[in-house]
Amino acid sequence: MKKRYFIPLIYILFLMLPIYWLITMSFKTTGEILSGFSLFPQDLTFENYRVIFTDPTWYWGYINSISYVTLNTVISIAVALPAAYAFSRYRFLGDKQLFFWLLTNRMAPAAVFALPFFQLYSAVGLFDTYLAVALAHTLFNVPLAVWILEGFMRSVPKELDETAYIDGYSFPRFFVKIFLPNIKAGVGVAAFFCFMFSWVELLLAKTLTAVHAKPIAAIMTKTASSAGYELGLLAAAGTLTIIPGAIVIYFVRNYIAKGFAMGRV
Amino acid sequence: MTLELKDATKRVGAVTHIKPTSLILQPGHFNVLLGETGAGKTSLIKLMAGLEPIAAGQIFMNGVDVTKLSTQKRNISLVHQFFVNYPHMTVFENIASPLRVAGMAESEIQGRVEEAADILRLRPMLKRRPDELSGGQQQRTALARAIAKESTAVFLDEPLANLDYKLREEMREQLPELFAGRGAVVVYATSEPEEALMLGGHTALMNDGQVVQFGVTAEIYRAPRDLVSAQVFSNPPINSASVIKRGNEIHLDTVASWPVAGKAADLTDGPYSIAIRPSNITPERKSQTQIVIPGTVQVAELSGSESSAHFSFDQQNWVSLSPGVFPYDIGKTYPFFMEPSKCFYFAPDGALVA
């Protein structure tokens, strides 16, 4: 083997090891997992996946998670687009301060907000709804999305706006037909980060839900304690949680490189 | 069609960017805005285009007050110095864009785009995107968009500044015929005096947010209203000095003097400023009326078939520009010949007097 492949190979091996372990575990029985070390499943089983896809408490966990994550991403981007446009195109009183302090919510751990949110959402009757979790996550995602989108918008010259107005485009038409296509990479990157944050965030999602909007990660912790540790089942559930993120990454992989290059991610 | 400004003013905060400006611009020839970078050319264009708010004054198009009208409704075109096209659209869609917004029928759009593309030799590029084109082609796309639209007013904000030399020459020749017979008021901003002279038409000289002189280009070149106008409309910079008229002679300090002639003879005795174009100071004697000024050469440049020399004389910097190749030695003193009858005379308040 050529020497230059050696380091990357090791690198990928270490990166993939935990994921590989999770996936093999998902195809093993709990007995085999507990019995000792094995690189491949000795007794290949799809039982774990069958349980997840047939038991409503399991698959509803996924539906719930995907629902509030999608809702959150849509709200975050919809709110962040006009805000980022204002920051990138206009100068107004305190704009620089505002832009910086947008990030304050990201300076505290999410756990800090769990208690006030729980109380607030219970009081207004939003507790245990998709909207509750989606809104709670916008607190972190909107500032991030504004920050990312502003960078992309800034790189579009103001002359493009002017040219469009001169051509007769109204502002909304310009925004949709001219501006958005030119920052679609930014929208992709921002949406990706919103999606990922919301997808992996557990504490708020768990605190704000009970039954109807319960996220998959919360279900995983609950089921585990009912009849001893069902390790195979947990591994299968874990494997399935990787898939949505992997799909999203696949679609925005080129944009993310661009986002990193712009120093805004 | 006309474009008229009445005391149009632009302020940002407490700073006045465009001082009250009144102009009446006509179609049929180029209206050149000539001034250095920062003189307010772009600001004035943005004011006329409605892209920036007007602080005071009015703007009329064809006699109709458009001061309060939004940019979208003014029926204008603008070509920027930087090549601005819609990156996500093909060249065809770029040119068609204003027509589509106006809701024109597809068959007419097709015809107009193709006509504009033919004039600007873009026909083979119609299906490409702007980033696949050269700089010249990108700027031609922007020009084609302006032509296809048939606007009331077309603003060209230093459209050739970012093109290479050869392309610039070529397009400068093309531009006037491009807009001839279209009935639009064409406003062309440039920082190069030669460009204004080549384009002809009318010129508005701008300095420090103000139009200092407006008129037929050749006329204001021949008769600048004051020293500032003369300075704006000269490249290399015009030479100027303080002189004193005493009787029948003009004295440049104690180092040079010449007999008054022409209009200068009618001036009362006293101090004046003179300005003389670099091309009227030559290293070779051209006529007997020329006076000799000895100059120590500091910088010498050779551009094509012209030689220019920056020299010091009487503790001032002077520039000479003449056809032909003169191998100046830096630091050496040469006799330069100045034609006094080509001097502009300005009164102490700056106004042209002779």
Give the N-to-C terminal Cα separation of chain A. 36 Å
Rg from alpha-carbon coordinates of chain A: 22 Å
> Helical stretch count of chain A?
13
Note the gap between the termini of chain B. Answer: 36 Å
User: What is the CATH homologous superfamily assignment of the largest domain in chain B?
Assistant: P-loop containing nucleotide triphosphate hydrolases
The whole-number mean of residue pLDDT values of chain A reads 88
What is the name of the CATH architecture of the largest domain in chain A? Orthogonal Bundle
CATH topology of the largest domain in chain A: MetI-like fold
Please name the fourth-level CATH homologous superfamily of the largest domain in chain A: MetI-like
Number of helices of chain B: 8
Question: Any idea what the shape of chain B is?
Answer: elongated
Quaternary status: heterodimer
Main-sheet strand order of chain B equals 6-7-8-3-9-10
Description:
By secondary structure, chain A is mainly alpha-helical. Chain A folds into 2 domains: 1-45, no CATH class; 54-261, MetI-like (MetI-like fold, Orthogonal Bundle). Chain A is 74% helix and 0% strand. The two termini of chain A are 36 Å apart. The relative contact order of chain A is 0.15. By secondary structure, chain B is an alpha+beta fold. Chain B has 2 domains: 3-232, Rossmann fold (3-Layer(aba) Sandwich), CATH 3.40.50.300; 240-346, Nucleic acid-binding proteins (OB fold (Dihydrolipoamide Acetyltransferase, E2P), Beta Barrel). Chain B is 23% helix and 35% strand. Chain B has a 6-stranded mixed beta sheet, with helices on both faces. In chain B, strands 13-12-11-14-20 form a 5-stranded antiparallel beta sheet, with no helix packed on it. In chain B, strand 4 and strand 5 form a beta hairpin. Chain B is elongated. Chain B starts with a strand and ends in an 8-residue tail after the last strand. The mean pLDDT of chain B is 91. At the A-B interface, helix 8 and helix 9 of A face strand 6, helix 2 and helix 4 of B.
